[in-house]
Amino acid sequence: MIATLFWRVTQLGGALLSIAIILGWFQDFHLAFDSLSHFRLIFCLFLTIPALILLLGHRWRSGGTFFAIVAISVLLTWPYLPQTGTQPSVALSKRDVTLRVVQMNLRFNNPTPQKAVLAIRSGNPDIILLQEVTAKTQSALAALSNTHPYHISCQSRSWGSVGILSRYPFAKKYATGMCSHTWFCQRDR
Predict the structure, then answer these.
(1) Claim to verify: residue 106 and residue 75 sit in the same structural domain
(2) β-strands 127-131, 101-105: how paired?
(3) 139 in Cβ contact with 113 (< 8 Å)
(4) pTM exceeds 0.90, yes or no
(5) How far is CA 144 from CA 80, 140, 165, 187, in A?
């Protein structure tokens, strides 16, 4: 009775980890799946435990399946890991441009967005990434439009949204479709 329960719990745990790993591969379809993809290697590490237990208990089918999921996931993820040596090295010359990026949460009910504008300008950024842009903090985008003429602002009807401001034009493939279809997207230039 206890042995049967142990094997079922082990298989259930392995199945849940397998589902999390597999759903992580569908990261482009839903934000929750994208969140799972960030933990792919951790899930793989934990999945090896029930896989080993099941293989040692002569449960070849489920243990082998779990190991196959781990192996395939690690092999597909390996080229994107830092320090794996498979990424192309880029030699930078002195003529290469250095971009300054400022990221800031404007706070949806910020009573003084002018202070945020001053802080942003002090960093002399080329690209500005803003969160919680609302009607109250929209003046910050307007105040920066003279130095950063290219911007995308995704306005939601709730307490905040995002804004991207740039001194440089956006690539055409990124200039459209950046916001969720439930938001109103405004693109300038």
Answers:
(1) no
(2) parallel
(3) yes
(4) no
(5) 36, 6, 8, 15
| Host domain of residue 184 | 101-188
| pLDDT of res. 82 | 73
Structure tokens at 57: 């208990």
The amino acid sitting at 140 is A
Give the pair of three-digit tokens for residue 65.
Answer: 């399946």
pLDDT tens-digit readout, 27-67: 888 878 888 888 999 999 999 999 999 999 999 999 999 99
Count of domains observed in the chain? 2
112 assigned to some structural domain: yes
Rounded Cα–Cα distance for residues 47 and 128 (Å) = 40
Q: Are 165 and 130 in contact (CB under 8 A)?
A: yes
C-alpha gyration radius of the chain? 24
Same domain, 114 and 180: yes
- Is 88 a domain residue? no
Single-letter amino acid code for the residue at 118: L
